[in-house]
Specification:
It catalyses: ATP + H2O = ADP + phosphate + H(+). The chain is of the alpha/beta class.
């Protein structure tokens, strides 16, 4: 009886022992065969150079030999046992493996350079598996509470972050970029701008004059779009997001039927629900008042147009997350997941004062909290290589001035908003403030004076009617200035203003 009782326990013990004795995945034969192929014919390096580094090798010596070979080849030099001898002997890399005899062994391990790509992929695959084991061990230990006191959701976010990095990186830690490579990337960007209609190198904003000043929306940039309430921040940000999504869809359609867009536009709407935001876009595109849509006060023609436009919009690569008071860490996790699954081209945040900093952080002040959020948004832009547009409220001090046009000092709880942002834009509509200053008959002692004041007010209103200013107050990569826009309040719609403005500088 006692024998049968101890059998399951013994089996479990044996299973645990066998697990502990398992070796991490490695393919040493492939490593030696690849090195042999490289030493025999340096052209084999072209088959593996775009995805393989010395860090991927399970055997550290093999990895260091690979890096030494790569350095010589990339410098246009020959890499063989003779040319490598001095470097390998001086560095002592081969001391533990028998010296130069080991290189001779590598040459005999070579099967053929035609298989170099297969060897490289086998090495890389084994490295990925080792990384997965490390991540798995960290997740397990963290869950048991042995290495971390993070909450369950935070542990999920940390695990997802590690997996995302593994899925998108090649195993190299950040390092210096050789200048000629950076120069090549710069030339490619310039060529793209030259060939594209409108000379836009980044993603289009849908606003011609804004694209002229900025060159479009660029990867890794954090743009702050600020303004007082009722200026149209959300409407402008929605316009930009919609235009970018439509450009991605058109680009995919041009490649052929059934081709999916290479990226997605993500809107984090912390103030409005996804339904309210969708209604705004529908209202703008179908030219049906949002108020009429909500009341159902539309005719058959308007309804048919509404349905047709909604079908077109449903195909857009546009997603909305309306989680209120979302934390920076949750936003980062969702953006990473989206980039991994569907691609990511633009992130819009409406608006940053409603966000919370990463879970586990306790800023001492509101200014410090906003500073952490803007730094986090800039980090997301850089890490995922996408433009991030964050909307921001302005302080009330704007209202106390005669000229209500915003300035950088008006940024609410500014902290490092101005410092972290690559560009800062303000939305301003003179019509909104002028409307509030309509003359009242009771304020005048004669109808003649009231009539003159009313005429003057109407003249000024006609000059600013349906007009808005986008004040580009800071731009790290280009000029500042004012972009004049058309604004239609009924459909909360921004567009290009095809009116010539007299420029005092010309």
């Amino acid at each position: 009886m006692s024998m049968t009782q101890t059998q399951p326990a013994r089996q479990e013990e044996e299973t645990l022992l066998s697990l502990s004795l398992r070796h991490p995945p490695a393919n040493l034969e492939a490593e030696q065969a690849l090195l042999g192929a490289l030493l025999t014919n340096n052209r084999a390096y072209d088959r593996v150079s775009d995805f393989l580094t010395g860090a991927h090798f399970a055997n550290q010596v093999n990895g260091r030999i690979y890096d030494a070979i790569a350095r010589r080849i990339e410098n246009g030099q020959l890499a063989d046992p003779v040319t490598l001898r001095a470097e390998l002997e001086n560095s002592g890399i081969l001391n533990d493996v028998g010296g130069m005899v080991y290189l001779a062994k590598l040459l005999t391990s070579m099967v053929g350079i035609i298989n170099a790509g297969d060897y490289g992929r086998a090495i890389h695959d084994a490295w990925i598996r080792r990384q997965l084991i490390d991540i798995g061990e960290t997740v397990v230990n963290s869950a048991f509470g042995t290495i971390s006191d993070l909450s369950g959701p935070d542990q999920i976010a940390a695990g997802e972050e590690a997996l995302f990095r593994l899925a998108t990186e090649k195993g190299q830690d950040g390092g210096f970029v050789v200048f000629d490579r950076a120069l090549t990337d710069a030339i490619k960007t310039a060529e793209l701008a030259f060939r594209r209609e409108g000379h836009v190198s980044g993603l289009t904003s849908g606003l011609r004059d804004l694209d002229k000043k900025t060159g479009g929306l660029h990867p890794s940039d954090l743009m702050i779009l600020a303004g007082r309430p009722a200026m149209g921040k959300t409407a402008l940000a929605t316009k930009i997001a919609f235009s970018a999504a439509r450009a991605l869809m058109i680009e995919a359609e041009d490649k052929g039927p059934g081709v999916e867009p290479t990226g997605t536009v993500a809107i984090f709407s912390l103030e409005m629900s996804a339904e309210q935001l969708a209604t705004r876009i529908l209202s703008e595109q179908a030219e049906v008042s949002g108020e009429k849509i909500r009341r159902g006060d539309i005719g058959q023609k308007e309804f048919d147009r509404f349905v047709r436009v909604s079908r077109e919009l449903s195909r857009l690569p546009l997603v909305i997350d309306d989680t209120p008071a979302i934390s920076l860490s949750a936003m980062r996790t969702r953006c990473r997941r989206l980039k991994r699954t569907r691609g990511l081209s633009l992130v819009v945040v409406d608006y940053l004062q409603l966000m919370r900093p990463s879970v586990g952080t306790r800023p001492e002040s509101r200014v410090l909290e906003i500073s952490m959020i803007t730094q986090g948004l800039k980090a997301i832009a850089k890490e995922l290589e996408v433009p991030v547009i964050a909307l921001s409220q302005l302080s009330r001090q704007v209202e106390s001035r005669e000229d209500k046009r915003p300035m950088l000092s008006d940024l609410r709880e500014s902290g490092s908003i101005e410092q972290d942002a690559d560009s800062v834009m303000f939305v301003y509509r003179d019509e909104y403030y002028l409307q509030q200053r309509m003359p009242k008959e009771t304020a005048f002692d004669s109808m003649e004076k009231y009539g003159a004041a009313l005429d003057d007010w109407q003249r000024k209103m006609s000059l600013v009617h349906n007009k808005a200013e986008l004040i580009l107050e800071k731009q790290r990569h280009g000029p500042t200035g004012v972009v004049h826009l058309f604004f239609e309040g009924e459909f909360t719609r921004f567009a290009d203003l095809d009116v010539l403005h007299e420029d005092p500088h010309h």
